[in-house]
Structure formats: C-alpha cells, structure tokens
Specification:
The protein has helices at 10-17, 21-35, 79-91, 108-123, 137-145, 159-165, 171-184, 200-211, 241-254, 271-279, 299-309, 316-324, 331-343; strands at 40-50, 96-101, 127-131, 150-152, 187-189, 192-194, 219-224, 259-262, 284-286, 312-313. It has 344 residues and is of the alpha/beta class. The chain has one domain (10-313): TIM Barrel. Strands 1, 2, 3, 4, 5, 6, 7, 8, 9 and 10 form a 10-stranded parallel sheet that branches. The longest helix is centred in the middle third of the chain and has 16 residues, at 108-123. It is globular, with a radius of gyration of 19 Å. 44% of the residues are buried. It binds S-adenosylmethionine (SAM), 6-(5-methyl-2-OXO-imidazolidin-4-yl)-hexanoic acid and iron/sulfur cluster. 6-(5-methyl-2-OXO-imidazolidin-4-yl)-hexanoic acid is lined by residues 46, 62, 100, 131, 152, 154, 191, 221, 223, 226, 263-264, 291-294.
C-alpha cells in the first residue's frame, strides 16, 4: 500500500502537473496497480428521483430554476418506479445504484422516503449511494442507520473559483455536510467538474481540498462539464483532453486508495481518451444510458470498450465465477447472472 498523505501543498502538486505527460501517467499507473486490482472497473447507475425546480444557482446545472431553459420539475419518484429502475440497473450488471435529487437540502419527510428507496436497492443486492444536497447532522445519522453505503456531495472546484460558479451556498456549507457524512460512518463520494472556467491552479487546489481531508473520500468523481443549454456556463471553453487526463492522474497519485470515477461527459470522449483515463488510474464509471438529465454512453458501447481494453466489471466476474462453480443457490439470482453472461 502507498503512503496516504494529507499534507499536500500547491507547489508540489503543480510540479506534478508540469511533469511530462508520459512520466506523470507512468507514476499514476504504478500507484494504481500497487493499490487496486488491475483492469477492474466499478460501475454505478444513476437515477434522478426528483428532477428540476432546484433553488440553487449552480451555473452548470439544467435543474436550477435560475437556468434560462430550466428542465421541468417533477415530484419525488414513487417507490414502485425506483424498484423498476433499480432492477433494470442490476440486470445490466450494476453493483451500485446512486439516486440524485435536485434539492438544496432534503426535508425530514424526504429523508423518510429516500430511506425506503435505499432499502429497495439493498434488497436487490446492490450498494447504495444518494446525493440530496446539504444535510443536517441528524439527517446524516438517520441515513447511516438505514445502511446507506455512500453519500455524493461534490466540492466542484477550488474555494476561490467556487463563488464564480455558485452564489446560493458557500464552500464551508459543502465541507460541513461532508463532515457530518464522514462522522456518521457513511462512505464519502466527493469530487469536481472540469470546464467551469477554472485554471490549472484551481484544479490543483480542488484536489488538495479533497486529499487533505482527514480521511480521503472513498470515491472521487471527476466530471467533464456537460454543457447544458440555458445554463450560465453553457458556452465555456472546452477543457483540453490531455489536461483532463493529467487531472485524473493527479487524483490517483494524491489519493492512492480511492475509487477515481470518470464521471459525466464520457459520452463526448473518444475511446482512446477514456483508455488513457483508465491507464492514469480511473477505475469507476457511471453506467447506463442516462446520467441525471444528460445522456451517457450506451451500455452496449461500454461493454465493447471494456472488452477491447480487457477490463472487467467489478463484482460481475465474481458473480459469474460463483455460477460456474455452482456456488449460487437462489434461482432468480442464477437467472440474472446467466443474463449477464449472455451480454458478456
Ligand atoms: N442537488 C444535489 C447537489 O448538488 O449536491 C445533488 C444532485 S447534483 C446534480 C450532483 C452533482 O452533479 C453536482 O454536484 C455536480 O458536481 C454534478 N453536475 C451537475 N450538473 C452537471 C453538468 N452539467 N456537468 C457535469 N457535472 C454536473
Ligand atoms: C457526480 O459527480 N456526477 C453525477 C453524480 N455525481 C450525481 C451527476 C452528473 C450530472 C450530469 C448532468 C446531468 O445529468 O444533468
Ligand atoms: Fe441544484 Fe444540485 Fe443542480 Fe446545484 S447541482 S442546481 S444543487 S440540482
């Protein structure tokens, strides 16, 4: 295991960023294979359980009421629909199901409903993750008691750049929720977005915020901005691909044991760029045709890419081994695993 550090400084992170591309990737890949199973990708399906109508003014988000072309608001999804979508995800091979809601913060009544949804996900044998906005300490404890595995709450960018992207909350609000989540025992998923008009310094500073937390997040999503029409940042200059891959490499080097998730924006990335991201240490993706409101890569295309790259979906290979070794007794489970073998 590599040394886990929590004392990163800007100068050394920028020095790493400035290394030659090959040297940086080699270092990141070396750390990756020392700390993770090789050629494995963890997949997580997203579901928007409450879309649109969000009072926050995040400049990148189509679900904000401040967007010029806001997406239509929907009520909180029914438990039946959640179960249907979660089953579909499980049958496509997902091992984690993440439910997102366009809230500034959930009410206690909202939390009651979400806990029932989390139970549904667990009953289907998947890990759970939710992203519901800011939480109180009590709400984090309630979610933890329900057995929730992960809470996603992104810092998005550096402290300095944050005020240019969002004005309805501040960085400390985000950090407070992360603290409540960590203290409640839920695993932390927190990352950022590239393409918000930030500089390389801002990217380095975001990673320093995450890597200098007392414990590293177990999961760090790195999103490429999906430019949504009507949002303030719609016309932003696109991030250079090599710079994006460098940021993935830095994330891997600074947080060696963490799952680094190549997140939103994969739909517009070439296969070669994704392959470079995996080499640089990304080992998790969002899986399924839709993110929250934006399109994602088709499942068939992802499976083809994983096959081409000789990568396996985490959890799936164990399930198939169990079937081959006759270790699975439940008939429904056998059928699901058999279906996975067919898609493979
Ligand atoms: N409302 C909650 C919140 O903001 O924490 C949860 C849902 S919100 C959509 C989850 C995360 O998705 C945001 O923190 C942001 O990092 C990411 N996100 C939203 N819109 C995006 C976009 N257009 N491109 C890339 N990432 C985006
Ligand atoms: C994260 O970092 N990215 C996901 C998830 N956490 C919730 C969301 C991406 C949203 C992309 C835009 C959309 O679908 O609306
Ligand atoms: Fe609301 Fe989350 Fe979108 Fe911000 S990112 S506007 S908090 S749904």
């Amino acid at each position: 295991m590599s040394n886990v550090r929590n004392d990163w400084e800007l100068e050394e992170v920028l020095q790493l960023f400035n290394k030659s591309f090959n040297e940086l990737l080699y270092q990141a890949h070396d750390i990756h294979v020392k700390n993770h199973k090789k050629d494995m990708v963890q997949v997580c399906t997203l579901l928007s359980i409450k879309t649109g109508g969000c009072p926050e003014d995040c400049g990148y988000c189509s679900q904000s009421i401040h967007s010029d072309d806001p997406i239509e608001a929907t009520p909180l999804m029914s438990l039946e629909e959640v179960e249907k979508q979660a089953k579909l995800a499980r049958d496509q091979g997902s091992t984690r199901f993440c439910m997102g809601a366009a809230w500034r913060r959930p009410s206690n009544k909202n939390i009651d409903r979400v806990i029932k949804m989390i139970d549904i996900v667990h009953d289907l044998g998947m890990e759970s993750c939710v992203t519901l906005g800011m939480l109180s300490e009590d709400q984090a404890v309630r979610l933890s008691k329900s057995g929730l595995n992960y809470y996603n709450h992104n810092l998005d960018t550096s402290r300095e750049h944050y005020t240019k992207v969002i004005s309805t909350r501040n960085y400390q609000d985000r950090l407070n929720t992360l603290k409540y989540v960590r203290e409640s025992g839920i695993k932390v998923c927190s990352g950022g977005i590239l393409g918000l008009g930030e500089s390389r310094d801002d990217r380095a500073k975001l990673l320093i915020e995450l890597a200098n937390l007392e414990s590293h997040p177990e999961s760090v999503p790195i999103n490429m901005l999906v430019q949504m029409e009507g949002t303030r940042l719609y016309d932003n200059e696109k991030v250079d691909e090599i710079e994006f891959v460098r940021t993935i490499a830095l994330t891997r080097i600074m947080m060696p044991n963490t799952y680094v998730r190549l997140s939103a924006g994969r739909e517009s990335m070439s296969e070669s760029m994704q392959a470079l991201c995996f080499y640089a240490g990304a080992n998790s993706v969002f899986y399924g045709e839709e993110l929250l409101t934006a399109p994602n890569v088709e499942v068939e295309k992802d499976r083809e890419l994983f096959n081409k790259l000789g990568m396996k979906i985490e959890g799936e290979s164990d399930q198939i081994d169990n079937l081959n070794n006759n270790k699975t007794s439940n008939a429904e489970e056998k059928q699901n695993i058999y279906n996975l073998k067919l898609i493979n």
